[in-house]
Automatic annotation (TrEMBL):
CDD domains: YjgA-like
InterPro entries: DarP (IPR006839), DarP_sf (IPR023153)
Protein name as annotated: Dual-action ribosomal maturation protein DarP
PANTHER family in UniProt: UPF0307 PROTEIN YJGA (PTHR38101)
Organism of provenance: Sedimenticola thiotaurini
Alphabetically ordered keywords of this record: Cytoplasm, Ribosome biogenesis, RNA-binding, rRNA-binding
Length: 170
């Protein structure tokens, strides 16, 4: 068993002050993340009315010190809520953000490959996504290459990226 948690003979569990402080710090971190979310996202958490009221109060606080005090209050209220559910929802949000980021990078890589590659790269893309418009893609690639050669703003490259994003590459 850890040093912070001691067991007495009558099976009563005693938690040290250090462990209590660590738990409160974790709750304060969760509370700070909650305060940064949009009010519409708070509804996902199914909080009690007092917690929702405290979260709404966060919107009107402007002072940094007051926000720190309020975060501690939110953490105290959060200790009475189902923190496992809150952590699970944050984990899902983080996973979704990571997936979006990976998708964005994958589309960027395809765009760069198409602009530097040849017809083989285009046929590879069409194998993956047969519903893509070959002629439109060729036109965007040609315009994008021309922009690069002439050092023009990347308007066609942005259009190519947008079109690839619409194709929903997996």
């Amino acid at each position: 068993m850890s040093d912070d948690i001691e067991q007495y003979e009558d099976d009563e569990l005693v938690i040290s002050r250090s462990e209590i402080k660590r738990q409160m710090h974790a709750l304060q971190t969760l509370a700070a993340r909650l305060a940064e979310l949009k009010p519409a996202q708070w509804e996902q958490f199914n909080f009690t009315e007092s917690m929702m009221e405290a979260l709404r109060e966060t919107l009107r606080i402007k002072s940094h010190n007051a926000l720190q005090r309020h975060t501690k209050r939110l953490a105290k209220l959060l200790s009475k809520e189902d923190t496992e559910q809150v952590e699970l929802l944050f984990s899902r949000m983080d996973d979704r953000a990571l997936q979006d980021s990976k998708r964005f990078h994958r589309i960027e890589q395809w765009r760069d490959r198409l602009l530097t590659g040849d017809d083989k790269t285009l046929s590879d893309l069409l194998d993956i996504c047969p519903k893509a418009d070959r002629q439109h893609l060729r036109q965007l690639i040609r315009s994008g290459k021309k922009e690069q050669e002439l050092s023009k703003p990347p308007a066609a490259q942005r259009k190519l990226f947008k079109y690839l994003r619409e194709l929903d590459l997996e």
